[in-house]
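If I may wish for something, please sit down with the protein I am sending here and say whether tokens and residues agree:
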Amino acid sequence: MAGIPPKPWPTGEAEQVEPLVKRVLAPNPSPYTYTGTQTYVVGQADGPDCAVIDPGPNEADHIEAIMAAVGDAKVLAIMCTHTHRDHSPAAAPLAERTGAPVVGCAPLAIKTDLPRSDEAFDTTYAPDRVLEDGEQMRGTGWTLTAVATPGHTSNHLCFALEESGALFTGDHVMGWSTSVVIPPDGDMGDYMSSLEKLQARDDVVYHSAHGAAITNPRQLVRGMIGHRRQRENQILRLMDEAPRAVSEFIPDMYKGLDKRLVPAAEMSVTAHLIDLERRGLAGRSLEAGVEVWRTN
């Protein structure tokens, strides 16, 4: 995670990022969303129809910007990668404006509210159709295939644009930072499996919900897998030195971390610890009311 940089593209304006894809930046920058959530409009230029991916926050100016990017095209589908509040709340008002169905990820089963409001769950999300892995939505000159990628959330999907080799990765792979995996809904084991699934694909570019387009996707995913394994090894080494609470991992693992991001780092460490516990490599106990982790 990092501070908020200058915006790479003005909010409220559609940017043509490839022949079938426009990108619209929402005005919701933060330490967790980078420059803001990026909504994508998929369809031929001046074509008869399109799809909207990750409509973003329910903010009137952003919805108007999406409508401007859509133009005269008929919206065939409003597609959500997952149900964090910076991704899906605009789906319902956009559906009301366009008459398009909301499709994509399932409603979130675990509705525990999390400390970070910009990534807490959208419990109002109600899709008209849930897409399973491999299911497709089609329009004039475009085909979007659902790719199940649980981990960041249990319901996370990516969408592959078959005509260009692009993959819309939501928050699973981002163009500025690694994704935060937050239990109980986020699962590190699932996240790693989903990264390996993407590593085996031949997508040529990733369009994520936050950050620049990723033009070296397999190289980046390989690095992300290595980064997570490095974090796992750090955790095991620190537990070998001494049992410790989650908060006691942070100073060694995240030197110089912005204090606003400490809760996210603690969630990530917790996700690793739960995964290690499931694999029989770590365990926990209560000591003076504090949960302490150690190697098995």
In short: The helical segments are 60-70, 91-98, 188-199, 217-241, 250-253, 262-278. The chain has six helices and 14 strands. The first strand starts at residue 14 and ends at 18.
